[in-house]
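Forwarding these from the shared drive since the link keeps breaking.
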Amino acid sequence: MKPLSLTCLLVGVVLFTNAQDAKTPLFKSSALTALNGFTRGIEGPAVDKAGILYVVNFAKQGTIGQVNPDGSASLFIELPEGSIGNGIRFDSKGNMLIADYTKHNILKVNMLTKDISVFAHNATMSQPNDIAIDNKDRLYASDPNWGASTGRIWRIDTDGKTTTLDNMGTANGIEVSPDNKLLYVNESVQRKVWVYDLSAKGEVSNKRLFHEFPDFGMDGMRCDIDGNLYVTRHGKGTIAKLSPSGKLLTEITLIGKLPSNIAFGGKDGRTAYVTLQDKGNVESFRVDKPGREWLMTKEK
């Protein structure tokens, strides 16, 4: 009887947990971290395999902060002098990769030793700004020239080699689809989201309009496992959820008005974390499907 009783108890705990999760409303944002704990340069949310959230510019520019599930934030590392981070991603080995837009680098951080090295450098870049990663650990970087309202897309291979993929408007948010066959890039000033076919070699082709917004700007964006694209609407204070066909499914209202980027995490990958420039903090809300990269970390 004891084994049966224990089994029943475990089943009960699981059912209770699922029931509690079911009561949590979806797409309702609330503050996770304290106001103004980060600078107005807050950006680059990314979650490691342990579920810790990392965000750039904690307390001052040129830092990386870490955020625990309870919302408590602390300094993780300070970047080399003159470097300021923007996008963050994690590779399959658990290394942190940071777009250092002031020094035109991709920095690599050993998460155990906190050693920081230059993984890639290209002096002809305007920045880079945001980064996305595919299932082969290749990075894709947006590179806006804000003054000229132009931009480029770069691929950074696993050996640090940089290759220009395309020229466009003010490239900003960038993301790879769950099947690694599409690359999404948005243009903040032009208010357009473009999609490219992405080959197995990391080459792009067949550029086409995915979605165009009539107002406000855009910043970072990320996919869930079904290929829905969550786009930060900078100035509007919402997250637009676009279907794989580019249809606007819903808009999630935030507390802040200047969302800069988004990431997925939590114990089931269904918690969205959003960085807010006007509030200097992180908001979070629950979603219906896990994020693409959260699932990637579980499969590796």
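-- next protein --
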Amino acid sequence: MLRLGTRGSALARAQAALVHDGLVRRHPGLRVETVHIRTTGDRGARAPQGPGGRKGLFVKEIEEALLAGEIDVGVHSMKDLPARLPAGLVVGAVPARAAAHDVLIGAGGLRELPSGARVGTASVRRRAQLLARRRDVVVTPLRGNVDTRLRRWREGAVDALILAAAGLERLGIAEPAALALAPEEFLPPVGQGALALECRADAPATRALLAAVEDPAAATAVAAERAFLLAIGGDCNTPLAAHATVADGQVALRALVTDREGQHWLEDADSAPAAEAEALGRALAERLLAAGARGILEG
């Protein structure tokens, strides 16, 4: 029996179902149970200040259940996972990644947004990148699950939305008004579209089972992005972004740090052999820090 722990939202359940099916397909006869855990973030708690921020609110209780032996694997959206994991826990596998990009709903592109348009998002990263390109729009805080945000847009609470393409894909929502924002135009956050299968470091049998659903390209890209996140010293309260791709044995990484208003912007990109993904992430962070990223992070 392998016990998967996940949040109870529709998206979390869909993601856990993907992992369940992948494990059963790779290990015929394996019994896999899904345990739904209500997290602090699901209860609507406000984000604390400091490292981890709101991210930790969506994983804390799942990690506690892992450490207590109540579950064997925590299934997380990678972008919700803080840069530093609790002692005794590791990311046991990264399955195949969904689309990492964002989508704009309600306009034919960022340039086509009318002046004064209300764009719904609670993400500081999306806010900063949007304002950097369109100082004349109004960023309207909008939280809730995907269905809630789409409903609020249809009701006219906002004129447009920015959402993760992966969330729509995994929920099976084909929104005709969704326009893909290419990563070159609108850089995604660390880990968007990827899943993290977290487990105890001292559970070799569990890690062996998870290894069967690991996607090497996704794991390499995420390793570069998370190494950047850890080295830059940011969290989800900081409008930073990083996106890596893997092809022909090379990993390419692009990263940025801005202030919340999108007025101060530092960006860099580089590539390296896939085996050096983490070193690439650290190197990009060091270059941005040398260029003044620390002042933006602490500003």
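Residues 45-53 have pLDDT under 50 and may be disordered. Residues 73 and 199 are 5 Å apart (CA to CA).

- D.
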